[in-house]
Amino acid sequence: MWLKQHEIPFDHCVVEQGNVDTRRSSQMRIRYENRFSLAADNEVSLFVEDELRKAVKLGDICEVVFLIKHPYNRSAPNALPKNVIEVDSWLEIEKFVRANL
């Protein structure tokens, strides 16, 4: 696994099923887990995302969401919630975490 190879500590890794619009329902025969339900259920504080729409949605759930900048996910200035932070790299995320936690 890539995380172990790079000696990055983690509690567990989840492979997402469903899609961004999948909701849990007691009436569903299949229980889908997606980043939104997992973040809410596990009270995730920090999340890294590369899709603008998902990052904004996760901003309602998590304390801080890092949006990794790509040409396809540019936002309008001041259009992001205050807890969604655009970053250029994983190094920038690491610096933020070390400085603020």
Topology record:
Layout: H1 2-5, H2 35-41, E1 46-49, H3 52-58, E2 64-68, E3 84-87, H4 90-100
Parallel strand pairs: 1-2, 2-3
Feature tags:
101 residues, globular, 3 strands, alpha/beta
Describe this protein's structure.
This protein has 101 residues and is α/β, with parallel strands linked by helices. The chain has one domain. The chain is built from four helices and three strands; from the N terminus they run H-H-E-H-E-E-H. Strand 1 (46-49), helix 3 and strand 2 (64-68) form a beta-alpha-beta unit. It is globular, with a radius of gyration of 15 Å.
Concise overview:
29% of the residues lie in helices and 13% in strands. It is built from four helices and three strands; from the N terminus they run ααβαββα.
| Low-confidence spans | none
Rough outline = globular
Total of DSSP H or I helical runs spanning 4+ residues:
4
Query: What does the largest sheet look like?
Result: 3 strands, parallel
Strand order of the largest sheet: 1-2-3
Mean pLDDT: 80
Name the helix and strand elements from N-terminus to C-terminus, one letter apiece.
HHEHEEH
What class do helices, strands and sheet pairing give? alpha/beta
Share of β-strand residues: 5-15%
Q: Got a strand count? A: 3
Range of helix content: 25-40%
CA-CA gap between termini: 27 Å
Query: What Rg is obtained from the alpha carbons, in whole angstroms?
Result: 15 Å
User: Number of domains in the coordinates?
Assistant: 1
